[in-house]
Amino acid sequence: MGCVSENRWESFPEMLSTGLSLNETEDALESVQFPFEKVFPVYAMSLTEPQTDSIVKSDHDPIWDAVREETKLEAEKEPILSSFLYASILAHDCLEQALAFVLANRLQNPTLLATQLMDIFSHVMIHDRDIQRSIRLDVQAFMDRDPACLSYSSALLYLKGYHSLQSYRVAHALWKQGRKLLALALQSRISEVFGVDIHPAAKIGDGILLDHGTGVVIGETAVIGNRVSLMHGVTLGGTGKETGDRHPKVGDLALLGACVTVLGNIKIGEGAMVAAGSLVLKHVPPHSMVAGTPAQVIGSIDEQDPSLTMNHDATKEFFKHVAVGSRDGRSK
After folding, report:
1. Cβ neighbours around 113 below 10 Å, total
2. CA proximity to 140, closest of 129, 128, 149
3. I need a surface site. Which of 100, 104, 195, 289 has the fewest CB within 10 A?
4. What is the signed CA dihedral for 158, 163, 165, 168, rounded to 10 degrees?
5. pLDDT tens digit string along 187-246?
6. What phi and psi, each to the nearest 5 degrees, are found at residue 111?
7. What residues contact residue 326 under an 8 Å CB cut-off, 6+ apart?
8. How far apart are CA 206 and CA 139, in angstroms?
């Protein structure tokens, strides 16, 4: 099994159609030449020959096609980055190899060498269909929901929320294979480099947005559904007293605002929204909005998919609600 084949994408035409129509630039791109003979030394360290025997080349991977076209245009506009862009993206045969290369160079240290990490990441991603699917749905989530994400290639190259999430996916695969010590070593390094601490045993679905990512903590027994959006500073932790299954479970299409803390084995219902700064200590009903410390239900969600609308502020109506409740409490 290698890079994603054409048939792999027949089930995603609707999700992947937006932003991928770049035919008008094909003539110009074909004339662009990249005669790069050297790359920056740090990147050359792990620029290994692709294992073409195990790779099924895909000419119809719309995400990868978009990444390459965007990168060629960027290299033409910013010659100072051309060597970096060639080594990171254009020298590779598929998205899996390019992503493995980028992550390896971000996470390398004297213990985890770039060449070793490149081999580990490449092997895991090229032989795991679930990860191949996830890395594409995740980058599409960044494009669709993060206004700061300029392109597929910028997410692949620069966004640490995306990097930490894909690094976790490799660590999770290693954990399931029984290579727990290596998975924990990756978790430690991911936390050090990206400021995101996700236990490799946690279970995370597809189409996830970690916006900024800084300060996100996800515990060992946490479960996150599909198409969930998490802002910076979100904690899915335990109470410190429990053992076993002790971390939150987040339903599909939920939105957790900045600096939300959810503690214990509790459920955030499907399509629920937790306002920024909330402390959640009890179950959140599906398609409801909760806010406050401790969080309380303040209404229902008008939008069916709050994680996609990305409207995560506590509205003026909420503050009126809190003010009225506080005044009534004092009067009693």
Report:
1. 14
2. 149
3. 195
4. -170
5. 999 999 999 999 999 999 999 999 988 999 999 999 999 999 999 999 999 988 778 899
6. -90, -45
7. none
8. 10
